[in-house]
Amino acid sequence: MSDKATLQYNGNSYDFPVIKGTENELAIDIKKLRASTGMITIDPGYKNTGSCESGITFLDGEKGILRYRGYSIEDLAEKADFLETAYLLIFGELPTEEQLSKFDQDIKEQSHVDEDVKKILDGFPKSAHPMGVLSSLTSALIAFNPAFVNVSSEEEMYNAIVRILAKFPVLVSWALRKNKGLPLDYGDNSLGYVENIVKMMFRRPNQEYQKNQIVIDALDKLLILHADHEQNCSTSTVRIVGSSHAGLFASLSAGISALWGPLHGGANQAVLEMLEAIEADGGDTKKYMAKAKDKNDPFRLMGFGHRVYKNFDPRARIIKKAADEVLNDLGVVDPILDIAKGLEKEALEDQYFVDRKLYPNVDFYSGIIYRAMGIPTEMFTVMFALGRLPGWIAQWREMRLNNEPIGRPRQVYTGANLRPFVDLGNR
Ligand code: CMC
Q1: Ligand 1: does its nearest atom lie under 6 Å from the Cβ of 387?
Q2: CA dihedral defined by 105, 107, 109, 114, rounded to 10 degrees?
Q3: Is 363 one of the annotated active-site residues of the chain?
Q4: pLDDT per residue over 145-195, tens digit each?
Q5: Each residue's pLDDT tens digit, 328-374
Q6: Beta bridge partners of 28
Q7: Which of 89, 100, 269 is nearest to 193 (CA)?
Q8: Nearest residue to 408 (alpha-carbon basis) of 290, 221, 244, 174
Q9: Does ligand 1 have an atom closer than 6 angstroms to the CB of 289?
Q10: Sheet holding 26-28, edge to edge
């Protein structure tokens, strides 16, 4: 096989190196394209564009494979916990017992958030969407931790990473508690990372916190499944913002905003809202299937389809099983779930969905579990952000350590040609 690709244009021929990833993915290296041909490529939505070489996550959308640092998502969801997975993603190897215990301890030591951050939170209306609150508070953390992080110092990098992993769950719980009108709470450092999150979110001021292992285990698994997904919209945002050498917290805040959209992380909230709307409209799933297929109707079946998975979403398979277990264990009976199951069955058998390879994605099931756990719908995307945090950090770290250039795509201009200025009175 040739290790170069040849482009022919206007009687000229140009060679470009072909590079191969460790899983044999091929890419044409066009770094010198513009310099040698004067042309650029155009690829809206970057469907054919690799923005970087990365050693963090491998996914094969055709085969339904997802691996973090070489470990299968199935193994990690079954055998690892979220903190171990975070360490693996960020630092490249599974931690030893000693490394994990130090990591956990270091995070605990940073798990306070400045009391003044509460004043910022006070400024938000109670109705504010928690994703907006989370993005703003993450950005505000910069003001409380203004030190410039020297990325060539492993220690400074480690400290910044530990700091955000420690403070982010507090912000998440505050976003929820603000929304629910509950007093703001600090964590309990005697607990594990995920249990502490659950307690911070659900603890009532006037009653003893009741530990629910089913909820803790399910959340741990969900966070692992969401922890990274290579160069998706929010991760690419984190990398591109960080490529201007904006700091970690600023890059993460931008990533949170990108995740908020209903075509990305916001889909889990959109799924539940869609199911509720179908229920309110009499529960006729066939009517909504028809709407989803009607090209004159903007309605899409939320929670179906994926940019990369064109076979099945491996996370969805794990999460579907977890959803069944959680609902069973918690004894949840919910008409919304019947609608979800009906839609899933119809879509999997429908030619339109089969032809376009539209399968239920991770967000179709995650919303269902979150609902069963008692997490309010508008918090679903925040839970996604909590899970994605280690992935964003890992990708930011890799990008900075590789000293990647500032992200700056080009364009093909299609606007007006030079024209004379027309004075206001003559327009
Ligand atoms: N319902 C109905 N039709 C759909 C859907 C859907 N959910 N998704 C794609 N299609 C159709 C689309 O209309 C198009 O049809 P045609 O070829 O006839 O024009 C075809 O399938 C291909 O769609 P596309 O928009 O070109 O595909 P894409 O890869 O650009 O978009 C997607 C992927 C996830 C944005 C899209 O499938 C979608 O909008 N899904 C619903 C939102 C959703 O669940 N998002 C969560 C994604 S998973 C979580 C994450 O990683 O963020």
Answers
A1: no
A2: -170
A3: yes
A4: 877 889 999 999 999 999 999 999 999 999 999 988 899 988 899 999 999
A5: 888 888 888 889 888 999 999 999 999 999 988 888 888 888 988 88
A6: 18
A7: 100
A8: 244
A9: no
A10: 4-9, 12-20, 26-28
